[in-house]
Amino acid sequence: MRLFLALVPPPGLRERLGALADAAHARCGGRRMPDESLHLTLAFLGEVGDDLAGELAEEIRSLAIPAGCWTLDAWGHFRCPGIVWVGGHRPDAALQRLHERLWDRLEAHQLPGRPSRFIPHVTLLRRAERLEADDLPHVDLEWSYNQVTLIHSINDGQAARYVPLARSRAT
Ligand code: ATP
Ligand code: MG
Fold first, then answer.
1. Distance, first Cα to last Cα, the chain
2. Is 125's pLDDT higher than 90?
3. Percent of the chain with pLDDT over 70
4. What is the C-alpha to C-alpha distance for residues 41 and 112, in angstroms, rounded to an integer?
C-alpha cells in the first residue's frame, strides 16, 4: 500500500487553508485539493507491504514528537507538475529535524527514498494553468502541531483519497 507521513491541520486551520485554496483556484485554475486532503507531507514512503505497514503503524502509535509551531507566510509553486502551495519564506529548523528523525526510523526499516532536500509545503492546487498571480491573498498562518499521522493514499479514480492509519501520541 502507498503510504506517507504527514501533519494534518486542525479544523480551524484547514478552513483557512481551504479559503486560500479557493482564492488560488480562482486565479490560477487547475484542480483544487479538497479540504479533507490538505496536509504537510513529512516523508513519502511509497509502496510498502502489509506486514511492514502494520509494524510502522505500531511504531507511529508509540512515537511522541516534540510539539512545534510552523509559520506559513509564503506562496510557492513547483513548475512541474503545476503545483501551487503555501509554506514558509524561511527554512523551519524544527520541521527539518522532525523530517530527519522520521527518515532515520524509516531507514532502520530499510525503506529507500530519503530525499536530499525537504521543502515543507501544503499543496493547494494541482495542474494549475497559471503558477503565479500577483493578487493572491497574503498568507499569515501559524500551524501548531504535536502529532504525525501515517496515511494510506488510495488512488482508484481521479484524485487520491487519504485514509489515516495511525497517529503518534499527542504531546
Ligand atoms: P496522485 O499522485 O494520485 O495524483 P497524490 O499526489 O495526492 O495523488 P500521492 O502521490 O500518494 O497522492 O502523494 C501523497 C503525498 O506524498 C502528497 O503530499 C505528495 O505530494 C507526496 N509525494 C508523492 N510522491 C512523492 C515523492 N516521490 N517524493 C516526495 N513526496 C511525494
Ligand atoms: Mg502524487
1. 28
2. yes
3. 100
4. 16
Ligand 1 pocket check for 31: Cβ under 6 Å = no
Residue 33 pLDDT grade (very low, low, confident, very high; cuts 50, 70, 90): very high
Which of 5, 38, 47, 153 has the most ligand 1 atoms within 8 A of CB, as the residue to mutate? 153
**Domains of the chain, start order:** 2-167 (3.90.1140.10)
Phi then psi for 42, rounded to 5 degrees?
-95, -30
What's the gap in Å between 80 CA and the centre of ligand 2? 12
Q: What is the mean pLDDT of residues 67-92?
A: 97
pTM for this one? Answer: 0.97
Secondary structure class of 99 (helix, strand, coil)? helix
